[in-house]
Fold this protein.
Amino acid sequence: MDIKPSPNLKLAASPFHRGEQAIQAKLGVREQMERFGSRVIRDHMPQQHRDFYQQLPFIFVGHGDKDGWPWASILFNKPGFIQSPDEQSLHLNSQPVVGDPLLKAMDSNTKLGLLGIELETRRRNRLAAHITGSTDTQIQLSIDQSFGNCPQYIQNREYEFIDPNSMPKSSVESLTELDLSAQQLITNTDTFFVASFVNNDINSDNSNADSSDASIGADVSHRGGKPGFIRVDNNKSLTIPDYLGNNHFNTLGNFVENPKAGLLFIDFDKGHILTLTGRVEILWQSEDSQYFSGAERLWTFHLEQGYRLNHSLPLRWKLNEFSPNTLMTGTWAEAAQQREQQHQIESHQAQWQDYQVVNIVDESSLIKSFYLQPAGGLKAQSKFSFTAGQFLTVKLPTTLRNTVNGKDVIRTYTISSAPADPLLRISVKRETSADSAHRD
């Protein structure tokens, strides 16, 4: 189901814009997140955040280009390249790599979303900011919003810088389709970054007038999962699970207002960058999500434009371990297997199956319990799944069958065993003619 914020919705002053609020309301966390967001989303950086950014060797950046397409980027240099003169300012002593669309967005007042992330400790913090000035070696930023993020789904990685002179010459390839190399990188990845963007038009009507301008602009976020958690549907489209998060819904909230995304994939072994932009759709009630462990919902990405920046990063990463949260999620291969197993179970249950009575227990003078197992034994076939209170339809085999007016005798009984029991059990009450007369 799509979300369309009401133009008449009156919003209190909030750190969340209209799209974020609409999703929070849809999922029943609106009041909770307003109270929480008002406490943790600031218009400045606390000292621990300032210290954190200044020790990083790289930072991720999201922006929207002149046509409103979001892009995700990485800026890097030796630790200390990020400086914080005061609680509302950051200076980044770096420039985008050749071919990065961010190079064309160095104008003053350009809105940026920033993600500082330390993969080896799984610590991350987010910023919304705007450019106040730039040179060939530095980008100056003023802070609009600052907040922390939880460490979920972040894989533990160690980095090292390599000698740039030892790298092959960098090159830029423009893409309008996902070729085999791009598909392999995406299929095998366990980490990517997603940018989203909402421009100031969201505040052009009264529906969002009371929402802070600081909530409007660009955002960039981390996404992690097991290798295989992104499905390559074709050479233009991807399907991606959305896991349980912090309920801010910064990314999806931006999608509601501007259904476009920028995706950034890094080849951690070779230093290549794949940056893409395209249209998105949130799938709130997709059948596929029922089979994908950990997925709250899905979203699709349809490529508009992309660039492969070969040999652009003098950084290499070594994977140490997956996040515990990641290990509780699935892959598309596992989801396909679960779907097939469920279809087999449903097909199995729609057909008559041969079972035999292996035990009969007298529960009372009128009630007997019959214990059933597959005719070939417990290992002959998988016992079908059922829920408590479900019924079982029984038809006698030909050798024992009685007929009434030439028809098979078929009866239905409630299953009286538990779903985890090895045998099926039905309990049958024998009714006498006296019982029938009394009931009449």
User: Anything to note?
Assistant: The first strand starts at residue 58 and ends at 64. DSSP finds eight helices and 24 strands in the chain. Residues 6-12, 436-440 have pLDDT under 50 and may be disordered.
